[in-house]
Design brief:
Layout (H helix, E strand, L loop, with lengths): L6 H17 L4 H11 L15 H17 L6 H10 L5 H5 L4 H14 L2 H16 L1
Length: 133
Amino acid sequence: MNPMHSYDQLKSDVDLLAKEIVALGGSLGGGYDRAAVEYWLEPSVLGDSKPTPLPVKLAVAIAICTLKHAAALPVEPEDEEPIETLLPLLTPSQVQSSFSSPDLIQMHADSSAVLSPRLLNAVTPFLASAIGA
């Protein structure tokens, strides 16, 4: 069984990393880009389940989009690409076994608020199935 992860903690960790980059003189957007690197969301390693498990990568990708939106930064198509790439690599039960129901509900709420309608059409049923799995 996969260990349970906390979506709120992952989101907090991403936010902290982005703010550290700002404190070092970088931009907030650059901080979120750095978080994507830290959690292995680059296209060349996105499908690898090590060192970051695929369900965690999905949660972090949603968190990055959510935090960018909350900071009034645009959520670009390249920010959504990891989510689009990860969905076919995962099953709802894999995500359900990695996160609690409240975390899954929060991920669903966050994605509903920030993702493009096209991607939301894929994410909504996927997370709904994970919540109900």
